[in-house]
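Long-time lurker, first post. I've been practising inverse folding by hand and with some scripts of my own, and I keep getting stuck on stretches where the structure tokens seem ambiguous. Below is the full token string for one chain I'm working on. Before anyone asks, I'm not after the true native sequence, just a reasonable design that respects the backbone. If someone could post their per-position residues I'd love to compare against what I wrote down in my notebook.
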């Protein structure tokens, strides 16, 4: 491949004046993450699905997302053993923010991949370490346990991490593990732009927002949270997210 081939390129071709610059820069970050061995090929496709929902939601942190963020912040602050589960997409998009959030709420960080791959885990761990984490769970030769009722490689979790956690943040997750984690008695928080996904529907707290935007708000909320009790109903909140898409589409249809 030539010097300017996409897999070698490290400078951005996106002009900041482009009307869709932010979205294109996030996409570029993920492609670089793929080139660096962090992201699975399937992760690029998963991102495309997320982009579609983000577009339909108006590419903003909606009122219902803010409500879920408040509930998530409280759950993380009050947790005894919170764990943040990191996959390839999350590492490529927000390694720095994950490390910061873990520090604020005193959470452990565990690498846990759907498309399990030793080398990719090592690259992800290296990036997290570069961002300041000392201990990363989920890597060999740490002791592991299995989550019952799950067939994917994600069933293998760290004995002192997800296995022992009371609250788990699993951004961009697959539905099977969300359900298995719930059955194992964990409180599950997720970021998922698709309010219809099984993960979104199964988690205790679903933040229907782009993780790149939403994580910043979650960090801010965790710093400022006053430990107030709040009422949160995930099903009701998800239905507000679906209505937000409906409202956006109706508005666009009126002006088409
Ligand atoms: O790195 P690995 O091997 O663990 O694989 C990670 C992926 C994401 C490939 C894997 O977990 C997967 O296949 O996930 P799914 O089942 O495609 O689910 C991903 C969900 O995240 C979908 O509902 C997307 O709409 C949503 N999503 C994608 N990008 C974002 C997002 N949600 C929030 N922010 C995003 N940036």
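-- Answer (accepted) --
I ran through it position by position. Result:
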């Amino acid at each position: 491949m030539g010097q300017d081939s996409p897999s070698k390129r490290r400078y951005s071709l996106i002009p900041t004046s482009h009307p869709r610059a932010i979205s294109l820069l996030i996409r570029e970050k993920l492609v670089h993450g793929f080139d660096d061995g962090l992201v699975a090929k399937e992760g690029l496709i998963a991102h495309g699905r997320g982009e579609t929902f983000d577009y339909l939601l108006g590419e903003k942190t909606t009122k219902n997302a803010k409500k879920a963020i408040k509930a998530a912040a409280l759950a993380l602050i009050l947790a005894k053993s919170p764990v943040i589960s990191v996959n390839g997409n999350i590492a490529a998009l927000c390694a720095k923010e994950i490390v910061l959030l873990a520090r604020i709420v005193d959470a452990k960080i565990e690498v846990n991949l759907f498309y399990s791959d030793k080398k990719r885990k090592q690259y992800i761990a290296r990036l997290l370490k570069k961002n300041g984490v000392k201990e990363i769970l989920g890597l060999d030769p740490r002791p592991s346990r299995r989550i019952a009722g799950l067939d994917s490689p994600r069933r293998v979790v760290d004995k002192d991490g997800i296995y022992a956690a009371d609250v788990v943040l699993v951004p961009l997750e697959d539905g099977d593990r969300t359900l298995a984690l719930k059955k194992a008695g964990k409180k599950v928080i997720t970021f998922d732009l698709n309010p219809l996904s099984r993960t979104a529907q199964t988690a205790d707290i679903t933040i229907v927002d782009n993780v790149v935007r939403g994580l910043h708000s979650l960090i801010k909320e965790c710093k400022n949270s006053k430990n107030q009790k709040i009422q949160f109903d995930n099903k009701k909140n998800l239905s507000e997210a679906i209505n937000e898409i409906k409202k956006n589409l109706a508005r666009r249809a009126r002006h088409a």
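A couple of notes from the structure itself: The CA atoms of residues 169 and 253 lie 36 Å apart. The longest helix spans residues 234-254. Happy to go over any region you disagree with.
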